[in-house]
UniProtKB/TrEMBL annotation:
InterPro entries: AcTrfase_RimI/Ard1, Acyl_CoA_acyltransferase, GNAT_dom, RimI, YpeA/RimI_acetyltransf. Pfam families: Acetyltransf_1 (PF00583). Acetylates the N-terminal alanine of ribosomal protein bS18. Its EC number is 2.3.1.266. Acetyl-CoA binds at M66, A67, I68, N104. It is an enzyme of class 2 (transferase). GO terms for molecular function: protein-N-terminal-alanine acetyltransferase activity. The gene is rimI. The active site is at E99 (proton acceptor), Y111 (proton donor). It is found in: Cytoplasm. It comes from the Bacteria. This is [Ribosomal protein bS18]-alanine N-acetyltransferase. Keywords: Acyltransferase, Cytoplasm, Transferase. Its main location: cytoplasm.
Length: 152
């Protein structure tokens, strides 16, 4: 089941985030995202196992963050969550942007499967724990149905 994130989800969402990110969002950032962004969670057996945060901006959107619990990855949940979260965007964006670490092959694979493609490379963008830096791939997904709606 995919539904809006609520205040009661913030503890588990913060825990999942801390398991998968080297620079995780804080509880406060997640709490603020409830008002500022579109935050969704995916449940399995009534347990939250993942989340997705999208930022609608005029007729576009940015994918800010998403994760699936490490024990639940590779089962199609990330794809389902991303597709449904995009469908639920109320501003019907014509395109959606995201940034992802170049080495994050599972995320890049997921985004490509969801229709995103690379448009740019932001060099030395992400800090690594060892002091080095990593490139960010900038990707975009064109939402052609929403684009066509602009001309109706
Ligand atoms: C990226 C992430 C959200 C993917 O979620 P998931 O539930 O594991 O992904 P799915 O099982 O839905 O897989 C969807 C597609 O992603 C790609 N993918 C998933 N895992 C992959 C892997 N280990 N290697 C390569 N591609 C992979 C595949 O294209 C897959 O489609 P397929 O099963 O038809 O081959 C998850 O791995 C995760 O939480 N990672 C840590 C946090 C993160 O990196 N978030 C994104 C950056 S903010």
């Amino acid at each position: 089941m995919i539904r809006d994130m609520q205040a009661a989800d913030i503890d588990i969402v913060t825990q999942i985030e801390a398991m998968v990110q080297t620079h995780p969002w804080s509880k406060q950032q997640f709490a603020e995202s409830l008002n500022s962004y579109q935050a969704t969670v995916i449940e399995l057996n009534k347990q939250v196992v993942g989340f997705c945060i999208l930022q609608p901006v005029l007729d576009e959107a940015n994918l800010l963050l998403m994760a699936i619990h490490p024990n639940m990855q590779g089962r199609g949940l990330g794809f389902k969550l991303l597709e449904e979260s995009i469908n639920q965007l109320k501003n019907n964006p014509v395109q959606i942007f995201l940034e992802v670490r170049e080495s994050n092959l599972s995320a890049v694979g997921l985004y490509e499967k969801s229709g995103f493609h690379q448009i740019d490379l932001r060099r030395h963008y992400y800090p690594n724990p060892d002091g080095t830096r990593e490139h960010a791939i900038i990707m975009v997904k064109a939402c052609s149905d929403n684009f066509a709606d602009l001309f109706k």
